[in-house]
Amino acid sequence: MFLKLWRSRSQRLRRTALSVLSGFATLVLAVGLSIGLGAPQAAAAGSLPCDLYATAGTPCVAAHSLVRALYSSYNGSLYQVQRASDSATLNIGLLAAGGYANAPAQDSFCTGTTCIITKIYDQSSRHNDLTVEGAGGAGAADVGAPADALPVTAGGHQVYGLEISAGMGYRDNSTSGVAVNGQAEGMYMVTSGTHVNGSCCFDYGNAETNNQDTGNGHMDAINFGTECWFSPCYGGGPWVQADLENGLFQSDSGYSKNSSNTGTGAMPFVTALLKNNGQDHFALKYGNAQSGSLTTTYSGGEPTTSGYSPMHQEGAIVLGTGGDNSNGSIGSFFEGVMTSGIPTDAADNSVQANIVSVGYGGSTGSTGSLTAGSEISLRATTSCCTTDYIRHQNNAAVVSPITSSSSTLDKSDATWIVRRALAAGAGSSCVSFESRNYPGDFLRHYNYQLYRQPMVGTAQFRSDATFCPQTGQSGTGYSFASYNYPTRFIRHYNYNVYIASNGGSNTWDSATSWTDDVSWVVTAPWAP
Hints:
The protein has helices spanning about 25-35, 50-55, 105-110, 345-355, 410-415, 460-465, 515; strands at about 60-65, 80-85, 90, 115-120, 130, 150-155, 155-160, 160-165, 170, 185-190, 205, 220-225, 240-245, 250, 270-275, 280-290, 295-300, 315-320, 330-335, 335-340, 375-380, 390-395, 395-400, 415-420, 430-435, 440-445, 450-455, 465-470, 480, 490-495, 495-500, 520-525. With about 525 residues, it is mainly β. The longest helix is centred in the N-terminal third of the chain and has 14 residues, at about 25-35. Mean pLDDT is about 90; it is low at about 1-45. Belongs to the glycosyl hydrolase 54 family.
């Protein structure tokens, strides 16, 4: 019989913005939340980010999103997907003007095969569309990101974000209206603090037009990750930094002069913002894209090293890599814009309020079943462990007791979203499990043990993250067979979670209590 062991739980730092929106921004936020988190809406109401920036006199010259329209009047394509089975392409548009992505069109087009994202359309009149990036001074030609790697709820709809793994990136080297040679500009992106690393460089913004490092001040892009280019950096990150070429800057000296800026922590959705007058001043801000206002981490002079004052921007747009295609980074992208001129703080605040109104990562609207989009928790049925649930902890899947008095973090770690099977040939009877609080991370097996890992799009990952439910081996609940090891089932053993056979050479294959240990009850989710 499996014996329960006490296991201490690690705690993770989760930072949230503490200040409260005031005045007009508070009103917009309150109205937006009622829209974003209420009944699903095909179209968002009121002014959207590029409307707000235009009203403030700093119009968007680029507006990219896989999730939604960034102008209230926009009704064009958001992005293009390409199907692996026959290389056919499809433009993914909106459910309604000013609304959210028509993700069901992607699901239908990609059924039975896989798709990658080949183009991200610019919603502005400038048509600064991003395509898969070619080779550069520091990296070989990139590949397109898997189209289904980052499912997310936005505006009450199930849509997809862009999940970048190493070797992926997008670019436009021939743009219109983007700042050059010291002109002023602003930019923001909505990203995630849970899918980051310390490699160079997860950027969005202004870059060189030849995929080479052409010198100091030839970039002006938001960087988000855990790479500390200039010491000291405080905390563990990830940080919003300025990639101005040959450095990720948190101040005019490069290193952080703000000891309270310890990074965003594992915040699922982050607003990252940079603005630069191109001459003698730049500013960095971040906010929780789910609630609250923006925090300014730096506002001051350009870097004191030569070449940055004035700036020498070249006007290309990059997403997911550095200016010379340094492409070792990972990151998430949901939406982002670039403006002509520096937006006012009031405009930034209104845009942040609108972002919050989207309800990124909100409830899917379905719970407690194995249908795609349902939020669930998985409870053990072995007599010793009927209050234990599968949860992730330090990236590994474990079982531990979860009760009504458990912490919010523990409840979130024990909540999963049922997704369509990632394995292309699995059919509709199999499923994959996405982490509720780490968007784009899935439960997958590796060397027979289960982990929470970001979806990288390989056939191996897709198979490892696909499970096929059947009646519980004990007669209770469900058992989940591994798609690529069909005689092995998800099992708990000594607090860890494996795919295990009924008897075998591995300790976790023990026949003792096997039928109970591989049987799970699908319950309502612990996280709201």
